[in-house]
């Protein structure tokens, strides 16, 4: 069976095993990603990172989970207790559900039963992922509101504004994928990338999605809802113990979810890297595709970690301007371009792949060069000798705003430059 007919035919025990495997994969991915983030950031900062608990420190995340579970569970006095307890669950459960439509591989023989390595699929699978993922924002907003804290409330409001702003750009970036694949089913989108990955054909959409997925998951440099310098801890300031652990779990599962979705929609899903399938016939058969899928997904997760260790946090106005003034118009314009090229190719009877690849590459190059040209040029500072030794030039434009006044030794000077000597009483 091909297409969506292959789903829903499994015995009940196969479905139960798949559900259990999806849950285990989400939890193990969270534990591994926390450890990997610590190791990568430590490497970037010339540290060692976790190395005590287990081989290479792999059990450090598990030890932290046990520590969180044993901490005292506090509820603020002014909190709405029912909503305060429900909010972390509301944020965590949708994160698990979204993995149900992600294809990890083709059909395999599983205990004598031919079944796809995917829990389920549907004609609107990608729309289902985006809808379920947007439910998680209710947990963050309600958690911030129910805490009875100003910091938590502001963090929740920021998160809702951030979700709305970047969900629109992400959805529009995926429209071009639907145009090329002719379906919203994740398994059929993977099948449509047998010859060309959509990450190459639709390069602008791929880049817009990558930026939007960082903003959607509240990760640095877009972690404005939990900015420590402004909001202490943001929406989870008042949370502790297992409630805080559920928010933490939801964040890392969402990071894995958007990475898995990017792999499925733009990098061929479980298919082997381009060129490997031509020299090795079994690269896309059996359980090997599971390896290719996770290697691609871990690449995106590494990008998340790299951005966190490299870039500073954006200002809130810069972040919102990027979403509404740059990503949204670019997504709409690229949809029109892809639709025109595909319709022209259908009418002309030729393949639009090379045209899309070349045009997308040219547009991306022009945008990157335009961004680089807008960066301010650093003027060379000329050092002037002072007593035979070169001294750096003073900053131009006067004193830095907010800086302390320079120390003045001696009596103060009047407006005309004449020194005012202190009176005998002042001298005493």
Automatic annotation (TrEMBL):
<feature type="transmembrane region" description="Helical">
    <location>
        <begin position="168"/>
        <end position="190"/>
    </location>
</feature>
<keyword id="KW-0812">Transmembrane</keyword>
<dbReference type="GO" id="GO:0009060">
    <property type="term" value="P:aerobic respiration"/>
</dbReference>
<feature type="transmembrane region" description="Helical">
    <location>
        <begin position="319"/>
        <end position="341"/>
    </location>
</feature>
<keyword id="KW-0520">NAD</keyword>
<comment type="function">
    <text>NDH-1 shuttles electrons from NADH, via FMN and iron-sulfur (Fe-S) centers, to quinones in the respiratory chain. The immediate electron acceptor for the enzyme in this species is believed to be ubiquinone. Couples the redox reaction to proton translocation (for every two electrons transferred, four hydrogen ions are translocated across the cytoplasmic membrane), and thus conserves the redox energy in a proton gradient. This subunit may bind ubiquinone.</text>
</comment>
<comment type="similarity">
    <text>Belongs to the complex I subunit 1 family.</text>
</comment>
<feature type="transmembrane region" description="Helical">
    <location>
        <begin position="124"/>
        <end position="147"/>
    </location>
</feature>
<keyword id="KW-1003">Cell membrane</keyword>
<dbReference type="InterPro" id="IPR018086">
    <property type="entry name" value="NADH_UbQ_OxRdtase_su1_CS"/>
</dbReference>
<feature type="transmembrane region" description="Helical">
    <location>
        <begin position="12"/>
        <end position="36"/>
    </location>
</feature>
<dbReference type="GO" id="GO:0003954">
    <property type="term" value="F:NADH dehydrogenase activity"/>
</dbReference>
<dbReference type="GO" id="GO:0048038">
    <property type="term" value="F:quinone binding"/>
</dbReference>
<feature type="transmembrane region" description="Helical">
    <location>
        <begin position="287"/>
        <end position="307"/>
    </location>
</feature>
<feature type="transmembrane region" description="Helical">
    <location>
        <begin position="244"/>
        <end position="267"/>
    </location>
</feature>
<comment type="subunit">
    <text>NDH-1 is composed of 14 different subunits. Subunits NuoA, H, J, K, L, M, N constitute the membrane sector of the complex.</text>
</comment>
<feature type="transmembrane region" description="Helical">
    <location>
        <begin position="196"/>
        <end position="215"/>
    </location>
</feature>
<dbReference type="InterPro" id="IPR001694">
    <property type="entry name" value="NADH_UbQ_OxRdtase_su1/FPO"/>
</dbReference>
<keyword id="KW-0874">Quinone</keyword>
<keyword id="KW-0560">Oxidoreductase</keyword>
<protein>
    <recommendedName>
        <fullName>NADH-quinone oxidoreductase subunit H</fullName>
        <ecNumber>7.1.1.-</ecNumber>
    </recommendedName>
</protein>
<dbReference type="GO" id="GO:0016655">
    <property type="term" value="F:oxidoreductase activity, acting on NAD(P)H, quinone or similar compound as acceptor"/>
</dbReference>
<feature type="transmembrane region" description="Helical">
    <location>
        <begin position="82"/>
        <end position="104"/>
    </location>
</feature>
<keyword id="KW-0472">Membrane</keyword>
<dbReference type="Pfam" id="PF00146">
    <property type="entry name" value="NADHdh"/>
</dbReference>
<keyword id="KW-1278">Translocase</keyword>
<keyword id="KW-1133">Transmembrane helix</keyword>
<feature type="transmembrane region" description="Helical">
    <location>
        <begin position="353"/>
        <end position="372"/>
    </location>
</feature>
<dbReference type="GO" id="GO:0005886">
    <property type="term" value="C:plasma membrane"/>
</dbReference>
<keyword id="KW-0830">Ubiquinone</keyword>
């Amino acid at each position: 069976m091909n297409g969506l007919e292959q789903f829903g035919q499994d015995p009940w025990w196969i479905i139960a095993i798949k559900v259990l495997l999806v849950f285990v994969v989400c939890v193990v991915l969270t534990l591994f990603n926390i450890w990997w983030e610590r190791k990568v950031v430590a490497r970037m900062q010339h540290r060692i990172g976790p190395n005590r608990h287990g081989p290479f420190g792999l059990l450090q995340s598990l030890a932290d989970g046990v520590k969180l579970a044993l901490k005292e569970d506090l509820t603020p006095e002014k909190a709405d207790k029912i909503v305060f307890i429900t909010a972390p669950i509301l944020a965590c459960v949708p994160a698990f559900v979204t993995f149900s439509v992600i294809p990890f591989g083709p059909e395999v023989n599983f205990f004598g039963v031919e079944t796809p390595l995917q829990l389920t699929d549907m004609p609107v699978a990608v729309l289902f992922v985006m809808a379920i993922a947007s439910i998680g924002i209710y947990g963050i907003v309600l958690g911030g509101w129910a805490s009875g804290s100003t910091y938590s409330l502001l963090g929740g409001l920021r998160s809702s504004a951030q979700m709305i702003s970047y969900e629109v750009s992400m959805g529009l970036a995926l429209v071009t994928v639907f145009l090329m694949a002719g379906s919203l089913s994740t398994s059929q989108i993977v099948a449509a990338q047998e010859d060309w990955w959509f990450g190459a054909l639709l390069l602008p959409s791929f880049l817009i999605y990558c930026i939007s997925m960082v903003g959607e998951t509240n990760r640095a440099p877009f972690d404005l809802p939990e900015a420590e310098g402004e909001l202490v801890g943001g929406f989870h300031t008042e949370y502790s113990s297992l409630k805080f652990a559920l928010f933490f779990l939801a964040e890392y599962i969402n990071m894995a979810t958007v990475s898995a979705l990017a792999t499925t929609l733009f990098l061929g899903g479980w298919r082997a890297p381009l060129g490997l399938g031509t020299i090795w016939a079994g690269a896309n058969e059996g359980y090997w595709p599971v390896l290719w899928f996770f290697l691609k997904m871990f690449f995106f997760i590494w990008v998340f970690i790299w951005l966190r260790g490299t870039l500073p946090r954006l200002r809130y106005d810069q972040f919102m301007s990027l979403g509404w003034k740059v990503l949204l118009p670019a997504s709409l314009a690229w949809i029109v371009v892809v639709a025109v090229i595909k319709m022209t190719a259908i009418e002309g009877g030729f393949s639009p792949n090379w045209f899309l690849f070349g045009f997308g590459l040219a547009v991306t190059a022009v945008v990157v060069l335009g961004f680089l040209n807008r960066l301010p040029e650093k003027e060379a500072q000329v050092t002037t000798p002072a007593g035979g030794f070169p001294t750096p030039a003073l900053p131009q434009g006067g004193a830095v705003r907010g800086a302390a006044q320079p120390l003045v030794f001696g009596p103060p000077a009047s407006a005309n430059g004449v020194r005012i000597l202190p009176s005998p009483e002042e001298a005493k």
